[in-house]
């Protein structure tokens, strides 16, 4: 993992302090409460990225990683999410590289390399599934949020 990952800004997740002290491991219900402000698509991504045991700071970092990923995919020039990305191997490699680049800088440091790569692959497969199911579904997701 990159050494230049940035820590999270506590102001991004104002309700984190309501539930735990910094560094405490959250229960599943506490993690769910902290993620309840996410859209259905963001929540699906959150469920894929979460670990069994997470602190409030880690939950916040995962939420910020999702936001950063969606912003990166929307702002990338040339576009990473191209038409028929699920059918084009080169486009899939670019998408995977974008996912890894964003997560390298935004996911918590506690994600070991094997877990990090697993999470990147899982998110890639979800994005390809969204693209295969609905050519406009993932585009509308990006347009709604950014």
Q: Major sheet: size, sense and barrel closure?
A: none
H-E order: HHHHHHH
Question: What does the overall shape look like?
Answer: globular
Count of strand segments: 0
Q: Strand fraction band? A: under 5%
**Uncertain stretches:** 1-22
The helicity comes to 55-70%
Head-to-tail CA distance between termini: 27 Å
What value does the average pLDDT take? 75
Q: What assembly state would you assign to the polypeptide chains in this entry? A: single chain
Rg over CA atoms, rounded to whole Å, is 15 Å
Give the helices and strands, then pairings.
Elements: H1 16-19, H2 28-34, H3 40-49, H4 56-75, H5 89-106, H6 113-133, H7 137-145
Helix pairs in contact: 3-4, 4-5, 4-7, 5-6
Structure explained in plain terms:
The two termini are about 25 Å apart. This protein has seven helices and no strands. By secondary structure, it is mainly α. Mean pLDDT is about 75; it is low at about 1-20. The protein is globular and about 45 Å long. The protein has helices at about 15-20, 30-35, 40-50, 55-75, 90-105, 115-135, 135-145. It has one domain (about 10-145). Helix 3 packs across helix 4, helix 4 runs antiparallel to helix 5 and helix 5 crosses helix 6.
Keywords:
disordered N terminus, globular, mainly alpha, 146 residues
Question: What would a concise description of this structure say?
Answer:
The protein is mainly α and 146 residues long. The protein contains seven helices and no strands. The chain has one domain (10-145).
């Amino acid at each position: 993992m990159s050494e230049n990952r940035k820590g999270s800004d506590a102001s991004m997740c104002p309700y984190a302090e309501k539930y735990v002290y910094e560094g405490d491991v959250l229960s599943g219900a506490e993690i769910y409460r902290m993620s309840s402000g996410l859209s259905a698509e963001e929540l699906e991504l959150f469920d894929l990225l979460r670990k069994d045991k997470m602190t409030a700071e880690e939950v916040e970092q995962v939420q910020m990683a999702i936001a950063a990923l969606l912003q990166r995919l929307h702002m990338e020039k040339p576009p990473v999410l191209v038409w028929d990305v699920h059918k084009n191997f080169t486009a899939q490699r670019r998408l995977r590289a974008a996912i890894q680049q964003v997560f390298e800088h935004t996911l918590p440091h506690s994600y070991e390399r094997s877990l990090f790569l697993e999470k990147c692959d899982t998110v890639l497969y979800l994005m390809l599934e969204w693209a295969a199911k609905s050519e406009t579904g993932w585009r509308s997701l990006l347009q709604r949020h950014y």
